[in-house]
Amino acid sequence: MTNYDFDLITIGAGSGGVRASRIAAGHGAKVAIIEEDRPGGTCVLRGCVPKKLLVYGAAFSADLDDAIGFGWEEVDPAHNWGQLIATKNTELDRLAGIYTNLLSNAGVTLIEGRGRIKDEHTVEVNGKTYTAERILIAVGGWPSVPDIPGLKDHAITSNEALNLGHRPDQVIVFGSGYIAVEFAGIFNGFGAETHLVYRAEQPLRGFDQDLRDGFSEAASARGIHMHPGVTIAKVEAAGEQKKVTLNDGQEMVVDVVMAATGRHPMTDDLGLENAGVTTNDKGAIVVNEDSQTNIPSIYAIGDVTDRINLTPVAIAEGHAFADTIYGDNPRRPDHTNVASAVFSMPPIGSVGLTEEDAIAKGINPKVFVASFRAMKNTISGRQEKSVMKLIVDPETDVVLGVHMLGPDAPEIIQGMAIAIKAGATKKDFDATIGIHPTAAEEFVTMRVPRSG
Question: 3-state DSSP call for residue 30?
Fold first, then answer.
């Protein structure tokens, strides 16, 4: 028998790594977790949580506009950006402390520093080596910045956008994914002149086309300047500002350029080659259904594997790993029908197949769509429309996908995700009595499929 320092060493104390380590320790394993920052990872410190707090803050400007239609007198309140960032940071400190306590209370040893794999059972941190029967890699991802002249020198990413000392007056957000549209909504909501620049014809590739159409229209109506079909050719300093030249020749001078053009797995300088761990052409660690790499003693979960890059997925993968290896409860994470949300303005919620996905799978789906102004908007005067959509298998009547653009979409879709997981049919939806008056009741009142 080989004597190791630990049964399990986890590299990365984000949501997935912390969950795996806590559960493994709870099953009786001797566990250490390595983190070069604070416990919490991308979601708590640089992603979901601080982003959502800024989304909440930015939404109040639209609420103030809407309030006028309900009889409130128009006001022009000032906003203290510095106070917002300070309050946000206080909350992140609290959450990081909770994560640290969770690890301590579970009996997990926290090792501070950057972990680097030396071999299939050894990790080095700050010049000291630690051994373990198994190693779990949960280091997440990091923003990618394209190799465009001046962009890396003059652009910020989502990391820095969450900690700007001052709110910019003019900003360009470069990208079309969920991070790009969310930050465009944040900057716009706080009053910045906001430009969204993207190569595609529409933002949010991979989401249902009707929602993409609806979002583009709503974003423009809210004042975001949309620049589809173009890219940034170069970025130059212009005093304290940035001069941005697009590939169509258009030039703009702005305070901030934000690159929101994707993320990559954080596998650089991790020492994977020392153990022979296989990665793909994107640098993601290749794993099987049990999150195991080609090296039997090394596992990986979360964004570093580039499967489904969502915090709850990383948590589910980590929990399943710990139960399987240390809890005598073999199980695998379920990557089917995972719900997702875009905290844009208005927000999006989605679960299951899009119409385009279904057609690609050879299904000619029944499609039910409703597009309408939410009740609040009929009084506020806002012309923005919600979009709600069901994708149904015509042979089995099973609802394959549910999609929504509009107020509270993420909250509503979470409930719909349970129905999709349970295999609900359109008849089940039809037999459900709606809550009136709500937007969500539209999902159980759509009766006529879209023709064509």
Answer: coil
